[in-house]
Amino acid sequence: MRLLFIFMVLLFFSCSGKKLELNYIETRESDQVDSYFGVEVRDPYRWLEDDMSDETNQWVEDQNQTTFNYLNTIPFRGNLKKRIKELNNYEKISAPFKKGKYEYFYKNSGLQDHSILYRRLAGSTENEEIFLDPNTFSEDGTVALRGIYFSEDYSKAAYLITEGGSDWRKAITIDVKTKQIIEDTLKNIKFSGLSWKGNEGVYYSSYKVSTDESVLSSKTQLHTVYYHQLGEKQIEDKFIFGGKKHPNRYIFSFVTEDQNYLVISASKTTSGNKLFVKSLEEKNSEFISIQNDYLSECSYVFNDGYQFYLSTNKDAPNFRLISLDLSNPKKWVDIIPEKDNVLNVSAGGGYLFCNYLVDAKSQVEQYDLKGNLVYKVPLPGIGSAGGFSAKSDETELYFSFSSYIYPRTIYKYNIENGQSILYEKPKVDFNSEDFISKQIFFQSKDGTTIPMFITHKKGIINKGDNPTILYGYGGFNISITPRFSSTNIAWLENGGIYAVPNIRGGGEYGENWHLAGTKLNKQNVFDDFISAAEYLIENKYTSKQFLAIRGVSNGGLLVGATMIQRPDLIKVAIPAVGVLDMLRYHQFTAGAGWSYDYGTADESKEMFEYLKKYSPVHAIKEGIEYPATLVTTSDHDDRVVPAHSYKFIAGIQKVQEGLNPTLIRIQTNAGHGSVSLDQRIELETDILAFIWNNMKINPKI
Question: Is 644 a catalytic site residue?
Answer without folding.
Answer: no
